[in-house]
Write a structure and sequence with these properties.
Length: 325
């Protein structure tokens, strides 16, 4: 495993990490979660991502139970949660001072931890002034309940505003963003976020590196039973992610992967790792074999030479254009 700084922050995260979305406490229970987490840990993963929203808090319970059972040293781990969707009540969601404090306290109880390393605002909240959110996050940091706070799916403008407010009032500025980034979803990361990388030294923990599994190639001939797209409530995946155009591109990319001696998943993950603004690639898995396969992507980062990257670019045909005035 390789370890990368979270942007300009001192903390180091494994370049590949593991998240709990969809799977823990829902699609899979504690036994499979434990096997997946152990496979990741044995491959050198130190960062495990979670959120109060995942399986209505059950994902945090599962992850906390596994960490306790395996008696991992807290210092060896980087654990996150994300706050926004904490329940059904009017004050259980959003980024108010009240929900941030209560949401973090509830997450810590479920995780059975005194602190998380990273806490994210899971989405921007247009109903709460950014200053209120920045002040609440500063309280969380000062209380030692989290070491770094950040954003998820915020615009560059919102991030710059939060940073400006923090600096104006001597509060803790945000350090990292959790955006979607993969071969099919590039524009925001590669263009819009330029200033937050250059001006703020922001770190990133990117999500859905396989576009929910589409970039594994598993959907080339339909929807396999037991896959994410076959889960109840995931019809949107079939409609929006598994398009004929994407399946065709994956077929061509699979040839490049075969030439390199890696799987399609490993190629897609290694491609994300090539971007220097990626601090960690959060992988997802519903079984330990997927974790074992995905972790080997680390060996292929260096095999993606400029020539190979160019071949990939030709297939993807979606390089974001920079606007030049
Ligand atoms: P991916 O795009 O990598 O999708 C992971 C899924 O793809 C797995 O659950 C599995 O699904 C399938 N898969 C993974 N590896 C393989 C493989 N080698 N071969 C075949 N199928 C494979 O990542 P996620 O969408 O899960 O996102 C990763 C993490 O990012 C989440 O767990 C979460 O922590 C975070 N996240 C954050 C969001 C945010 O808003 N901040 C939003 C979404 C995710 P299956 O076997 O069921 O088909």
């Amino acid at each position: 495993m390789k370890y990368r700084h979270l942007g300009k922050a001192g903390i180091k995260l494994s370049a590949l990490s593991l998240g709990a979305w969809v799977t823990y406490g829902g699609q899979v229970g504690q036994e499979i979660a434990e096997k997946c987490m152990l496979a990741a840990y044995n491959a050198g993963v130190n960062f495990f991502d979670n959120a109060e929203a995942y399986a209505d808090g059950n994902a945090e319970i599962v992850m906390g139970n596994v960490i306790k059972k395996l008696a991992w040293r807290r210092e060896d781990l980087v654990v996150s949660t994300k706050i926004f969707w904490g329940g059904k009540g009017p004050n259980d969601r959003g980024l108010s001072h009240k929900h941030i404090i209560e949401g973090v306290n509830n997450a810590l109880r479920r995780l059975q931890m005194d602190y998380v390393d990273l806490v994210f605002c899971h989405r921007p909240d247009p109903e709460t002034p950014i200053e209120e959110t920045v002040r609440a996050m500063d309280v969380i940091i000062k209380q030692g309940k989290a070491f770094y706070w950040g954003t998820s799916e915020w615009s560059a403008g919102e991030i710059l505003k939060a940073d400006g407010i923090a600096r104006q009032y001597g509060l803790t500025p945000p350090s990292m963003e959790q955006p979607q980034y993969n071969m099919f979803h590039r524009n925001i990361f590669e263009i819009e976020y330029d200033p937050i990388f250059k001006q703020l030294g922001y770190g990133t923990t990117i999500w859905s590196p396989l576009a929910s599994g589409v970039l594994s190639g598993k959907y080339a001939n339909g929807i396999p039973a037991g896959s994410r797209a076959a889960l109840p409530g995931f019809d949107w995946l079939q409609e929006h992610q598994i398009t004929a155009e994407r399946i065709e591109k994956v077929k061509h990319l699979s040839v490049i992967a075969a030439d390199l001696g890696c799987t399609m998943s490993q190629l897609a993950l290694a491609w994300c790792l090539k971007n220097p603004n990626v601090s960690t690639v959060i992988t997802g898995a519903s079984r330990p074999e997927q974790v074992e396969e995905n972790m080997k992507a680390i060996d292929f980062e260096d095999k993606l030479t400029p020539e190979v990257m160019e071949k990939i670019e030709l297939v993807l045909d979606n390089k974001p254009e920079r606007y030049v005035a």
